Amino acid sequence: MNHTELKMICSRTIPFIDAETLDAREAREALFRDQQGFLLYLSKDVSSEPAEERIFRVGVREALLWLNEDPHDQGSFWA
Over 70: is that where the pLDDT of 47 sits? Predict the structure, then answer.
C-alpha cells in the first residue's frame, strides 16, 4: 500500500488591509512537503465573501523563494 505523508514545513500569518472596508485582516500561508514535492496553501478572509483559499504545487526553487521572502515581500504568491 502506498502511503503519502504530508508534512508542514512552515506557516505564517500576513496582515493586510481590506480594500473594500479598510478593516485589518489576516492571510495565512503554509508550505507542505509530500513524496511528490511541495504544496503551498494560501487562505485569505475578505469582508463580504467567504474565505479565499488556494493550494498549488510548487517546485524546489519556488519553495525556497517563499521560505526566504523578506517580511515586506510576504504575500507575493497571491499575485
Answer: no
